[in-house]
Amino acid sequence: MDIPPKPTLKAIKKFRTLDEIKYAMKHVFQDAQLGLAGHRKLVVILKNVFKKAIELNQINFFAMCFTKLLSKVLPLKRGVLAGDRIVKFCYSFVNGLVKDANEEKRSKEEEKEEKDKDKDKDTNESDKNEEDQEDQEGEGDQETPISEFISYLIKYLLSGIEAKDKSVRYRVVQTLAYLVEFLTEIHENNTLEALYTLLSNRLQDKESSIRIQAVVALSHFQLFEFSIEGDTGEFEDELISSNQIQNKLINSIQNDDSPEVRRAALMNLVKTQDTIPILLERARDSNSINRRLVYSKIARELITDLDDLEFEDREFLLKWGLNDRDETVKAAATKMLTIYWYQSVNEDLLELIDQLNVKSAIAEQAILAFFKNKPEVLETIKIDESYWKNLTTEKAFLMRTFYQYCNENQLHALMDANFPELLDLSITLEKYLSVRLKTINENENLIKTWETYNAKIDELDDQIFSLENQISRINTDADNFRKSLSNIEEDIIEINIAKDLFKKRIKQLKNNSGNLEDLITEENQEIADQIKDFSMEDLQQQLEDINKNLDEIEHQPEDITAKLEELQTKYDSCIRALETTSELKIQTVQIFEQEHENDCIPFVDALKELEFIINQLLLIVKDFDYGDEMARRKLLHIIRMTLTEDKLPDGLISVALRVLRALSINEKDFVSMAVEIITDIRDSRDDEEFHSAAATFDDDDDDILGNGDDESQQSSSLSAVTKKRRIEPDMPPDDIVLRCLTMTQYVLEVITHSLDDHLSLSSIYSGIVNYAIQNESKKKLYLAGLTCLGLYSLIDSKIARIATTTLLSAMRSNGEEVKEIGMKAIVDILAIYGMSILDKSSKYKYSRMFFKVLNSFDAPKLQCIVAEGLCKLFLADILYKTDKRSLFGNAIQGGGGGGGGGNDDPTTTNDDETEEETDREHEKHLFEAIVLIYFNPNTKSNQELQQILSFCIPVYAFSRINHQINLAAVSGDVIYRLFTETETELSPSVIIPQLISWCDPRNLVKLSNEEINQATSHLWQCVYLLQVVEQVDARNVKRCIINNLNKFHITEELESNQLQALIKALDATVELFTNNEDNPNFILDKPTKKNFDIFIESIKNKLEIAQKREENESIKSGTNSILHELDDLDIGTGEKTSENEDEEDDNEEEEQEKKKSFTDGKNKLELKADKSITFKAEDKREGSVEIDHGQEQVLVESKKAIDSNVEDSLKI
User: Which of 30, 402, 665, 798 is most buried (most C-beta within 10 Å)?
Assistant: First the structure.
C-alpha cells in the first residue's frame, strides 16, 4: 500500500477512515522531530486531525496512535534532540487543545450572559443564581474529549514511570513535567492520586536527571489541594495540601546531592513567607551557580520594596554574597545591591543605608562595594559645616565610609573638599563626647534604672551560666561512669567465663579425663588458647587471682549505678532550675520593656545612636593625617581623658585604643600609656586612698603563676597584716575589673611584640586576668578572663603552656560558650607555637576532644570553629606533617626494626619515635574525621560547616603534593568507615570520584608536566582502595572502585618498582576474586570485569616502558639507578642489609607479636579497665575479614613492596 501524502487542512476534512488518521499523525510526528520551527503549523494540523477523530467518534483510536508514536522516542537517551522535540511538540499540542477549549468556553459564557440580559427582568434573582451554579457544577464534572485524551495520555505514561530503563523513566517524567500543567483537565481522582504518588517516588530516583523532571512536575501541584482515598473503609481520605508538596520540594532543596536537582527545586518552589528563608538559605549552597541564582533571580523576584525582606535576611544575603569565594556570585550580589536595591529606594543613598542598618557587620562592606561599582555617586556627596553639626547615624556612617573609600583609593581631592583639618575634627569629636557626658548627667535617674536592670540581667545570666556549666559537668561525669560500668560488666562476664573454664579444666586434670578442646566454646576460645599449656597448679593460682579480682569489682556496678542515679537527680534539678531562671529572665525583660517603653528605652536608644556617631568620628580620626603636631597632642589628650574618665562602651574602647596606637610614637609608648590608663581605672574606686596598682599586681605575680622558688617565697613573706592590706583590699569591684579586662583585651589585639618587651602587661596578667579566671560563677568576668588568657598566650610561650592546661580544664568542665572561646584560643596557640607547646598527655586529650567536637552535631557553631581551625593547622603542616617513616601508618615500619646506628641511646630514640608515631596516628585520625564529616549526611543541616569544608579540603589537596599523599593515605579508611561501620544512604559513585579528584596531581598548582607525571599520590591511593575491595562487603562499593580505576593518573614516568608494587596489589585483588567466585559479593558484571582487565593491562604496559627507560638511563650513565641501591638500605637506619637479614628481622617481629599477643591475652582482664581511654576512631583492622595463609602471604609481600616503594618515592 502506498503511503499517503502529507496531510493538509483541506485533505483532513475529507478523512473517512482510521488509516487516513493514522498516517496523518505519522507524518506530523515525523516532521516534528526534525526541528522546532515548524511545530506551530504541525500543531494546527494535528488539532484538525483530532477534531476529525471526534467527528468520527474515534477519540480512543486517536489517543492510542498518539501514545504509540510517542513511545518511539521514550527509549532515547537524555540529550537526543529528536526526543526533546517530540516531548515539546506533545506539550504544544495539548496546550493548543486546552486553549481552544477555554476560548470556546469563554465565548459560550459571553453568549449566555447576553441571553440572560434579554430574559425577563422579573425573574427571581436567587433562582437565576441556583441555575448558574448548577450549570457550572455540571460543566465542571462533564468529561470532554480533550480531558479524556489527556487522562489517557497520562495513564499511559504512568505505566512506564518505573521502567527499568533509565532513559524510558527520564522521557516519561520529562513528558509528565510538561503535562501536569493541565491538572485541571483531569477529572478522575484515581489518576490524579497515581500521578502524585508516582512522581513523589521519582524524587528518590538514583538518576539526577529524572529527579530534576520530577521536581518540575511536582511543583505544579503546589497550587492545588486534593484528597487521596483510603485503601479501606477503616482509613480516612488523606488531604494532600500545598504545604505537603512544598515540604517535598524543600527536602530536595536541602538534601539532594545533585546541584541541578537543588537548582530545579529552587526555581520552582512557590515564594511565600514560609518558603522565603529556605530560598535565601541557598546563598550558602555548595554549588556556585545555585548561589548566583539566589542573587540574580530569586532575590530580585522577591524584592519590590526592601521592607518586604526581613533585616536578618538582608544582612545574611549581603554577608554571604559579598564574601563569596566565587567571583560570579560576588558580582551578582553586588549587582543586586547597586542596581535592584538602589532602585527600590529611589536611588536615595541615605535611605539605602538606613535599610542596611548601619550597626550590622556587613553594612560597611556593602557601602564600600557600592562606591566601587558606582563611582559617579561619590561626586554627589557633599559634606559641609551644617552636615557636621547635624549628624545622624546614617549621615555619620556615610561620612566615615566615604572617607575610608577615598583614603584607600587616594582620592585626595574629594577628601580635601569635604573634610576639615585635624584640629577642627578633634574639636568636633570633643564636642560630641561632651554632649554624651551631658546627656548622661542630665538623666541620672534613667541611667540608674538602666544599670539596675542590666545588673539584674547579669545576675540571671550568671545563674544560667553556672547551671549550664553544672549540666555539662554532670553529662561528662555520667558518660565516664557509663563507660566504666560497661567495662566492668564486660570484665565480670569475662571473669565468670574464665572461672568456669578453669574449674572444668582443673576437674579434667584431676580426673585425668577429657581434653581442653572439649571445653572450648565461642565465648572462651581466646582464654582456652592461652591456658592450653597451664598445669593444675597454674590454673589453681589463676583461679585464686580471678576470685580475688571478682570480689574486688563485683560490687562496683551497684556503686556506679547509684552514682548515676544521683547524677540523674542532680541533672533533673539543674534542668528545672535552668528553665525557671530562663523564664524569669524573659519575664524580667518583658516587664522592663513594658514599664519603660516611653522613658528609659527611648533614652538608651538615643544614647546608643550618639555613641555610634562618636564611633564613626573616631574611625575617621584613626586614619587621619597627624602632620599637625599641635592637633595631634590635642587629640591625644582627648583620647586619654575619655578612656580614663568616661565609662565608654566596648565598641568605643576598641576604636579609641586603636586611635591611641596610631597617635603613639611606637608600640612600647602605646603599651605604656594603655597600662597607665588601666591602672588609673583600677584605682578609681578609692581616690582618697590612691596607691600604685602596678605594684600590687607585681606582688601577686609569683603566687598566682605558681612559679616562685623557695627564695622568692622567703623574699615575699611579709607580715600577715601587711599582705592582707596589700592584696585583699586592692582587688576592685567586678564592674571595674571587667572594664580593665575589656581594655586589656583590645590592647593585646593591637600589639605584635612579645611580652618580654612589655613587662608592665605582665602585672595585669598576674593580677586581673588570673582573678577573672578564678571566678567561674561570673559569666562576663570569666569569659573575658579566658579571652585575655588566650591573647596573652600569643605573645608569651610560658603563658601559652599554662594556658593550654587551663583552657583544656575549662572546656571539659563548662558549657558551649567557654568551649568556643577555648577552642579559638587553642587553635591560635597551636598555629603560633606548633604541637610542641603541648605536653605529652595534653596532645592525646586535645586529639580526643577535637574528635568528639567534630562529631557533635548538636553544637554546630563549635563544630565549625574546630573544623576551620583544624583545616588551617593541616594546611600549615602543623598537624599531620608528611613523614617518610609513617606516611602510610605502619606501612613503612618494616625496615625500622634494625639497630640504631649512630644513636647513643637507642631506647630513648625508640621511645621518641614511638611517641611521634602515636601522635601522628592521632593526627591522622583527626584528618580522617575531617574528610568523614565532609561526606556525613548530617552536615547538610550546618551550611556554615559545609562551606568551610567545601573550601578548605580542596585548597589543602591542591596546594602540595604531600597533602595529596596524606589524603591518599586516609582514602581507604574513609571508604571503609563510610560503608562498613555506619548505615548510610551515600552513594560510592559520588564519594570515590571525589576522593580521586582531590588526589589528582593534575589539579596541583604551580607544577610542571614532568612533576605531575612523576607524582605518586594516585598510585598509592589506588593501592589502598584496592585493599578496601577486600575489606568492604558491599558489592556496589567494589564495583565503583574498579570502574573508577581508569581515572587514576598513573604514567610510565614513575619508577618501575613503584609500578611493580601496584601490579602486586592488582594481582592480589585478582586472586581475591578468583578465590571467592562462589561469594555473590565478589561477582563482577562483564563491563566491570572488562574495565578491570583493561586497567591491569595498561599498568603492565607502563611498567614495561618504565623498565626500558631505566635500562637506557643506566646504559647512558654507566651507573645503576639510585632506586636499586635504596632497595638494599634499611629504611629506618640507612644501613645496608641482606635479604636474609630482612627475613630474619621479619621472623623476629612475628615472634615478638605472637608473644605480645599471648601476654596481652593473659593480662586481658587487668587491661580491660583502660578501654575508656582508647581513641574513639577504631582501628580499621578490627573490621577486616579473615583470609587464608596463601592470601596473607601475598598481601605481606605486596605490603613490603609498597613500604619500600613509598620510601623511595619520598626520597626522590
Answer: 402
